[in-house]
């Protein structure tokens, strides 16, 4: 005798149809972190992340595995390809700036995992419908710049990381109380 079983829960790989509760439960399990012990910031758009994660699980898993297993403090400044243009990292060292000297930006091709390896900075976050374009989208550099003084502000430290999606405008490199040195890694995951 053959028995056929069907799951009573929604298809695990289709978060576009998940309820908010299902998205939150998946996110809070943190299995997608692959053991990386850094806290995801509360600002992360969990639904956007779940949707892209299941469309591009291979590269997301590679990204978090790299973050978990690498000696981030000693990474050299510059770009390092993990899988060509589909997945790469950019490491930078700089001094944070006064808020008035920073701008909002966005990307169309990539989702950013931004993690402060050393130091701390403030980052602004808002939606594209609230900002005014100051420099139109540059396809070669995958960036556009905006003017806007509001938004949510996130303190980024070695204890947390943020994700920025194509629908997000973000404002990195702001000082968190005083201008200070920062070492940051940005993992660029091609959006699906």
Give me the count of strands: 12
Tell me roughly what share of residues is in helical segments.
Answer: 10-25%
Q: What fraction strand?
A: 35-45%
Cross-sheet strand order for the largest sheet: 1-10-5-12-3-2
| Structural class computed from helices and strand pairing | alpha+beta
Q: What ranges have pLDDT less than 50 throughout 5 or more consecutive residues?
A: 1-11
Q: How large is the radius of gyration? A: 18 Å
Mean pLDDT: 94
Q: In one word, what is the shape?
A: globular
Number of helices: 3
Can you write the helix and strand succession as a string? Answer: HEHHEEEEEEEEEEE
What's the main sheet like? Answer: 6 strands, mixed
Q: What is the first-to-last residue Cα distance?
A: 43 Å
Description:
It is a single chain. The protein is of the alpha+beta class and 192 residues long. It has 3 helices and 12 strands. It has helices spanning 20-29, 46-55, 57-69; strands at residues 39-40, 78-83, 87-95, 104-106, 110-118, 121-127, 132-138, 143-147, 152-156, 160-164, 168-174, 181-190. The strands form 3 sheets. The chain has a 6-stranded mixed β-sheet, covered by helices on one side. Strands 4-8-7 form a 3-stranded antiparallel β-sheet, with no helix packed on it. The chain has a 3-stranded antiparallel β-sheet with strand order 9-6-11, with no helix packed on it. A hairpin with a 3-residue loop joins strand 2 (78-83) and strand 3 (87-95). Helix 2 packs across helix 3. It is globular, with a radius of gyration of 18 Å. Mean pLDDT is 94; it is low at 1-11.
